[in-house]
Amino acid sequence: RFAVSVGYWKDPYIQYFVRQAKERKAPEINRGKLACYYARVHGVSYLIKAFLKKTECNCQIVNLGAGMDTLFWRLKDENLLPRKYFEVDFPMIVARKIHNIKSKPPLSKPIMESHSGDSLLIDSHSLDSSRYSIVGADLRFSSDLEEKLKKHNLDIHLPTLLVAECVLVYMTPQQSANLLKWAASTFPVAMFINYEQVNMTDRFGQIMIENLQRRQCNLAGVEVCRSLASQRERLLLNGWETARAIDMMKVYSFLPQADVKRIEGLEFLDEKELFEQLMQHYCICWASKDSSNL
Question: Looking at the predicted structure, is the pLDDT value of residue 95 above 60?
Answer without folding.
Answer: yes
